[in-house]
Structure formats: C-alpha cells, structure tokens
Design goal:
about 180 residues; 6 helices; six-stranded mixed β-sheet; 6 strands; binds iron/sulfur cluster; alpha/beta
C-alpha cells in the first residue's frame, strides 16, 4: 500500500514537494528505515540522497553492500518543517504505509532515534540498544529489528560509526546467506 499522491493524513502534507517512497530492491527482505526526508529527498522524491545518504552510501560501499540490494525508506514519507523530528502522531498516521513496505522483511534496521521510537516505542539512548536483535511484530508478522545509529550521528561520533558499520556488515552477511 502506497500513500496516494495527494495524501493528507497528517500535517506534513502541507510542506512537502514530493512524497518520498522507498528505493532499492523492494523484495530484498532487508530494510533500512531512517527518520524522515530532508530537503534533498523532498526535492528529488528519493530517500537518503542528501548528506546522510552520502555517508550511508560510502559506509555501505566500504562494507560491500550495494544500496540497490536492500529497501531504503523512512518512518514518514513527507519532509517535516525545518527538518524537525516527526511527531508520534505523524509517524502513527504514516505507519500503515511503512508496515506495507516492511511486510515481506525478515530484518528491519532502524537508523536512529525516530525509527526506534516508531517501531519499538523506545525513547532511551541509542548506545543501550544499538545492534541488539529484537523481535518485533510489524504488520502482524514477527520480524527481527536491529536498532542502530543514524548516518548523521556518524559525522562526529566514533561510536556511531562503529555501530552503523557493524549493522551494515550484518545486513550484508544476511543477504549473502540468503536466509
Ligand atoms: S507523512 Fe505519510 S501520512 Fe503524512 S501526509 Fe505524508 S504520506 Fe501522508
């Protein structure tokens, strides 16, 4: 299920240029879920194409994982004003679209706090849960959720870089194992 092009289910509709739908291999079984589209994503209508996307692409390339082999998406499909975090209500309104994107996934990777808030209801420090495998129910189906750091956090934090790199490596190994 995709949002209609005129979706007005939450207030984020008022500031968007484009609804940003997932990219990559939608049948891959492995998904990376970020927070929300930023300015570049809103203009191009594609997820993770701005500064954070470049960091993610570089780390994926270094770990031998081409982004076209996984699903790349966000908790909400429209850009929040001034790049603020999406609210609980906005994420809830968009959740049925996210659930639909993730319905065939065996592994869902949450990039940063908003994804963990939306999928796990977790509000604590990323360091407490990063790279743990947590069983969650998404769209009525049990799935493995791996929380990790958002690429933007990797600019200044060595811990975040190591954590995200470890998750990308795990995703690549899962893809290669093909189970
Ligand atoms: S963020 Fe999601 S629910 Fe809100 S208007 Fe955009 S597509 Fe619709």
């Amino acid at each position: 299920m995709r949002p209609p092009t005129d979706c007005m289910l939450c207030p984020l509709c008022s500031g968007r240029t484009n609804i940003v739908l997932p990219s990559g291999d939608l049948s891959s079984g492995i998904a990376f879920v970020g927070e929300a589209p930023g300015e570049s994503e809103d203009l191009q209508g594609r997820p993770f194409v701005g500064r954070s996307g470049k960091i993610l692409d570089k780390m994926m390339a270094e770990e031998g994982l081409d982004r076209s082999r996984v699903i790349i998406t966000n908790t909400v499909k429209c850009r929040p004003p001034k790049n603020r975090d999406p609210t609980k209500e906005e994420m809830a309104a968009c959740r049925k679209f996210l659930d639909s994107e993730l319905s065939q996934c065996r592994i869902v990777i949450g990039l940063g706090k908003s994804a963990c808030r939306d999928i796990l209801g977790y509000e604590g420090r990323m360091g407490e849960i990063a790279n743990k495998r947590i069983s969650v129910v998404i769209g009525g189906k049990e799935t493995v959720f791996i929380p990790t750091y958002h690429p933007a956090a990797c600019i200044y934090s060595k811990e975040a870089r190591a954590g995200l790199r470890e998750t990308i490596r795990a995703a690549r190994e899962e893809l290669e194992a093909g189970h």
